[in-house]
Amino acid sequence: EAGVAQSPRYKIIEKRQSVAFWCNPISGHATLYWYQQILGQGPKLLIQFQNNGVVDDSQLPKDRFSAERLKGVDSTLKIQPAKLEDSAVYLCASSLDRGGIYEQYFGPGTRLTVT
Amino acid sequence: GEDVEQSLFLSVREGDSSVINCTYTDSSSTYLYWYKQEPGAGLQLLTYIFSNMDMKQDQRLTVLLNKKDKHLSLRIADTQTGDSAIYFCAESPGGGYNKLIFGAGTRLAVHP
Fold first, then answer.
1. In a 3-state reduction of DSSP, which class is residue B38?
2. Which of A85, A89, A95, B92 has its CA 20 to 30 A from that of B44?
3. What pLDDT shows up at residue A71?
4. What are the pLDDT digits (tens) for A72-104?
5. How distant, in Å, are the alpha carbons of A14, A21, A46, B108 from that of A38?
């Protein structure tokens, strides 16, 4: 089966600009996650969708970050305006409920550099 | 609170066993996971263990769980150069949302 697709793979922007990332999860996976991975750290969950509804966005900086998952499939994550500290890899993951075990499958990520 | 701690670096000789350790804080975590990340790639699920188990073996991988001490370890037998990567421990806290809390990762370097 095809994996989680993300684009672009790399993006360089100046601070105060805006940027958007796209994710296409594995077909049939109801749950979609966006993580931020700062260099040298583990991924941190930004937002989690169940179908097209948000179930956890407690760590999403809502003054500048937004995400949507229209029709419960693809998702976009937007940053506006970007700050230097937003430089990170943004990982998308999707999962399927296998009797209470949610194995998360990760995409390759988008590396964002804010200058 | 939710926190996962790992040592940052481990160096082993090819053919030896590697042991990567992790401590977590949320005693309600139902599953605990090990992920592998190679350079420029996303995370790959290696294995997981249910919280009522104390050991799980999967080919060269052995996971040990000490729930009393909230300590998790991953042993890789016969470590190969292809095992060089960053290994992340993650807990899945209770609450029904199945989010993962990751440690900072342990970089495993395998040398001849």
1. coil
2. A85
3. 85
4. 899 999 999 999 999 999 999 999 877 667 789
5. 18, 16, 12, 19
What is the mean pLDDT of each successive set of 10 residues along chain B, which is 112 residues long? 85 97 86 91 90 92 94 97 96 74 96 92
CA dihedral for A6, A44, B90, B61, sign (positive or negative): positive
DSSP secondary structure code for residue A73 in this structure:
S
A 45-84 residues with CB below 8 A of B? 45, 48, 55-56
Output the six-digit token pair for B31: 């599953």
Smallest CA-to-CA distance from A45 within A54, A63, A57 is with A57
Residue A110 — very low, low, confident or very high, per pLDDT cuts 50/70/90? very high
* Residue B108, number of CB atoms within 10 A of its CB: 20
Q: pLDDT tens across A19-43, in order?
A: 999 999 999 898 999 999 999 899 9
Q: How many CB atoms lie within 10 A of CB A59?
A: 13
Residue of A nearest to B2 (CA): A44
- Give me the sign of the Cα torsion angle B37, A78, A34, B1: positive
What is the spatial distance between Cα A36 and Cα A43, in angstroms, rounded to a whole number?
5
Q: Which residue in B88, B92, B97 is closest to A55 by CB distance?
A: B97
